[in-house]
Amino acid sequence: MTEKKVAKPKEESVLIKDLNLQQKIHLAVSLCGVVKKSQTGMGYSAGSYNDVQQICKVACQQARLNLRPRTKTDITDSSITMHIALDVIDIDKVRINENTGDFNDYMAIGDIAVTQKLKGNQNDAKASGSLFSYGYKYLLQKFFLLDIEESQDDIDFEQRASSSTSGFDLNKLK
Predict the structure, then answer these.
(1) Angstrom distance (rounded) from CA 141 to CA 52
(2) In sequence order, which residues have a C-beta less than 8 Å from that of residue 42 and are 6 or more positions away?
(3) 105-109 contacts: CB < 8 A, separation 24 or more?
(4) Are 83 and 71 in contact (CB under 8 A)?
């Protein structure tokens, strides 16, 4: 007895340029790889700014998106606060408003504030540059849902039992 083979429906091909902005963002998120932690210091390791940016850059190029960071900086005598946001622009459907020069087809995301206290010989340019790198890296990580691969040091640290919680039973708390 032979079985009938069911014909599979043909999948429609859709050009990336025909996707809407949300579909392109979804595509970019799905194209992002894993960030390997490479920077160490202060007792932990982290993915570098360049590693995070490179993964997002490649995904956005393939999804035909452009990222435009926006910043607003507040400087006092003792600290700098930088607000960082991101415009995600669909390069296939973008139109510029002739009156204002603004983009019509984009999505504004994020508005994180990063603050740094100024120390002795630290100048405004150095502080604002490090604030931008730090804030922009974390904005990209969160928006693109990037997986950050744990380093071996992090894994070893997490597997060590803490002496303060060993034998601690949460069910006995009142």
Answers:
(1) 7
(2) none
(3) 105/21, 106/21, 106/68, 107/21, 107/22, 107/25, 108/70, 109/85, 109/139, 109/143
(4) yes
pLDDT digits over 25-54, tens only? 999 999 998 887 765 655 555 678 888 999
Residue of 156, 74, 85, 154 lying closest to 115 (CA atoms): 74
Q: Name 69's bridge partners.
A: 86
d(CA 69, CA 65): 13
First vs last Cα of the chain: how many Å apart?
67
Nearest to 60 by CA among 107, 102, 103: 107
